[in-house]
Amino acid sequence: MLNAVVLEGRHVRLEPLTEAHLDGLCAIGFEPSLWAMMPVRVTTREEMAAYIEAAQGPAQLAFAVIHKASGRVAGCTRYMNYEPAHKRVEIGSTWYGLEFQRTAVNTECKYLLFGYGFEVLGMNRVELKTDLRNERSQKAMLRVGAKQEGTLRRHMVVPGHVRDTVYFSVIAEEWGEVKARLEMLLFDGNIPGG
Question: From 3.30.300.70, 1.10.10.10, 3.40.630.30, 3.40.50.10490, which CATH number describes the 7-187 domain?
């Protein structure tokens, strides 16, 4: 089981996701493009409340992403598929409101989550996955230093089609290099808001 924790950087604070974040998520989360390639669709306040409730569980730890400069909820991300016996965890179910995309938000979230995963939880592997059609997400995963591993064809049934899923990972031996890359992106001003 993953214990609740708050992770904080210069740009974002990751807080355990609760019902208290419902209004903030509703304010940014009903744009259809946010859900177009996700396994779920959220279009109403009731669906967002159900999304928050479904994010609670022993093998996952969901976070509300708080944009520190504005104090607003910027989106969600989570640890999921936590396998302590195998020392692996997945970062997934990540989405951000449109105004927070292509800023330092995602880069710092990944920096905090990878760091906690490797340096505190002692993981051997942190994995990510995305829909094969989601080229933007694939580029973001490569940009933060994850390695593409392959594609699981016809991996899951999602609203509207059968999804092929592309897997990415960072392993413990790569974390030092990935960490330096993320710090360069965040602290050398190489991204908007960085």
Answer: 3.40.630.30
